[in-house]
Amino acid sequence: MEDDRYWLALNRVPGVGNILFKRLIEAYKQPEVIFETSEKALVQVEGVSERIVNAIHSFQGFDGVDQELDRIEKYHGKLLTLNDAEYPRRLFEIDDPPPFLYAKGNWEEENSSNPIAVVGARRTTAYGRKIAEQLCFQLAENGITIVSGFARGVDGVAHRAALKAGGQTIAVLGCGIDVIYPPEHKKLYHDIMEQGVIFSEFPMGTPPIAHNFPKRNRMISGLSLGCLVVEAGLKSGSLITARCAMEQGREVFAVPGSVYSELSAGPHQLIASGAKLVKNVEDILEEIYPQQTLNLAQAKPALPTLEAEEALVFQSLSFDPKHIDLLIQESQKPAAAISGLLLTLELKGVARQMSGQYYVKV
Prior knowledge:
The chain is of the alpha/beta class. It has 17 helices and twelve strands.
């Protein structure tokens, strides 16, 4: 904890950002040494000015640092610093890695195999939720660690699918690791701690304010080999993550959607810019495991046997909600008959009723 004290302290010195922090550590190995080093020596490090040296030597914020350490201990967190073997090696490679990560959960760098970032819309469609769930489940089954931002929509679906498949997942927060946001993800937060890890570069107690999220996004991509985008508007944070991935030399994948949906505009723009179009999990795995046989037997469950009339109604369904009146009109069958067939499809696990008598394919 004494070593952590100086890591936290140096991070609070005005003028010492992530890039300069990394240069200082490369030069002097330990933050404690930096506080004791002369001005003459420190200014030899690129980017260190006399003003920054004065700020280091006159730092008076150790009371706040000690309070932070107490809070980390209280909430059962830990720091992973640039010097730690457990610091994620891919994140270390980006231009401005966080000097340290606040972490909660079960994390072993050596067991985090081939992480892929999965991001997308918060207000996603039934189609977006379905394809995100399917892809993340299958990726996790094939040993891929799912990295996402713990937000509503695609992020939450991605984390849950990885957990359901028995795989690892990494949640990167835009707030302190002791702040559960959104609040409805409380159970997911605790589930991830059992089967993955929660990371943040923000101090304990930091609220989820808007300007934190671009920094979080570059960390999501930095942790990963590639970034998959499922539904995103043209001005969404998911496209920021994808651009960060491109700048960091990561693969970018995108799921296409309806040309009539605003949420398809982001993935379609990425595909036009060179992102790989993803129709199924093999499109991702062949980039990650080009020489390996894919374990997809369990990832593609067989469709239950459907009677002729059940199959006709099932074919009329899609992953976007469709109202029962439209299904009746398309089938030209009595309302009672369609209601009975939809109930049968629900019982067979291939359809789901939404609110307002809308139905989707499962």
